[in-house]
Amino acid sequence: MNPFDIQKIRADFPILDREVYGNKLVYLDNAATAQKPQVVIDAIVDYYTWNNSNIHRGVHYLSQIATSAYEDARETIRAYINAKEKYEVIFTKGTTDAINLLAYSFGEKYIHAGDEIIVSALEHHSNLVPWQILCQRKQAKLKIVPVNDKGEFIFEEFEKLLSSKTKLVAVAHISNALGSINPIKKIIKKAHERNIPVMIDGAQGIVHSAVDVQELDCDFYAFSGHKLYAPMGVGVLYGKEQYLEEMPPYQMGGEMVDQVSYQHTTYNRLPFKFEAGTPNVEAVLGLNAAINYIKGIGIEQIYRHENELLKYATNKLKKIEGIRIIGEADQKAGVVSFLIGEIHPYDAGTIIDHFGIAIRTGHHCAQPIIDHFKIPGTIRASFAMYNNFDEIDLLINAVKQVKKMFE
Ligand code: PMP
Fold this sequence. Notes:
Layout: H1 6-11, E1 19-20, E2 23-24, E3 26-27, H2 38-51, H3 61-81, E4 89-92, H4 95-110, E5 116-120, H5 129-138, E6 141-145, H6 155-161, E7 166-172, H7 184-192, E8 198-201, H8 205-208, H9 213-216, E9 220-224, E10 235-239, H10 241-246, E11 257-260, E12 265-267, H11 281-297, H12 299-318, E13 323-326, E14 335-340, H13 345-353, E15 357-358, E16 360-362, H14 367-372, E17 378-382, H15 389-406
Parallel strand pairs: 3-15, 5-6, 5-7, 7-8, 8-9
Antiparallel strand pairs: 1-2, 4-10, 9-10, 11-12, 13-14, 14-17, 16-17
């Protein structure tokens, strides 16, 4: 494995050279979306420059090239998450799209009145609202696993919620609001003892850790390309063949069909049954390039580096009087959420922005967990492989300036 060369990595991301308000950009909003390395940008440009064509349906040269590049990308992802079969990798628009697909399709097949679905109090709205609406549609019940004051999933409470009525458990791998890493392996094992399938929202998980879906034995795993250094508009729903085969399609149209007449339509085989219409080919190719790029560095090395940044930032923040860290789970990745005294996070964020530092403020699309802490929101710094310690020092300095201005 190559040594982790932060200078070289930074040079691969052209946006890091730009200025914001006369300062060099410090990008610490990676949990919202990550920046793209040149190889990903090149993959998009190459596709439109040389190979643009619709896929799966053309006999001509360009269509064949584009189709095989698209299917090669599916194989890259299969291998990266160690899915058993390539057709268990469904391309979607992103995590939200993947979870909506599942909520509709799994819901149609398996959820009935009186059934229960379990989520945690840490979920992003994308892994909460689709299940809430499904439960309303099917007269089922949504159960919520509470968290403790450190922002940790309470496993004993989860065990108590499991029953013969539970038909699905849907939990985040890593919380985007607090950075808590959920004990997903234990959760999956416990649910499987009762033959309950588990869906993991991996929007943050795939970015900070190696994911082996067979080792985890999760039934579904969803993630977005854009948080993984790939383009927006592409994501993945991994699902076990057994479920995907039984579930009905989510969207109808071209590609997902086999035979169509005015009376009757039969569906295409997996994965195409779930990929209606022209997909975002360039984004899929960009995702392929992003995964190959990450593999070249090593996700373990990336995680180690981000963890050092997280510890460094947390320690420095804690030394500033009046700082409150929100979410101090023992197992944490990528994110530090905090408040500066009584200063509203939005006010703080606006000032920090003027230093050229991109952080996120607010509820981070996870209102229930913010309500749990009875706060208006947090200031969130989230780290990626290209961030360095100098950038954290700049953030700390900006936080001190905010404090001074309000004193
Ligand atoms: N789940 C989690 C944990 C997330 O962090 C996000 C994005 N912030 C989503 C779901 C939704 O992802 P997307 O907007 O890419 O669909």
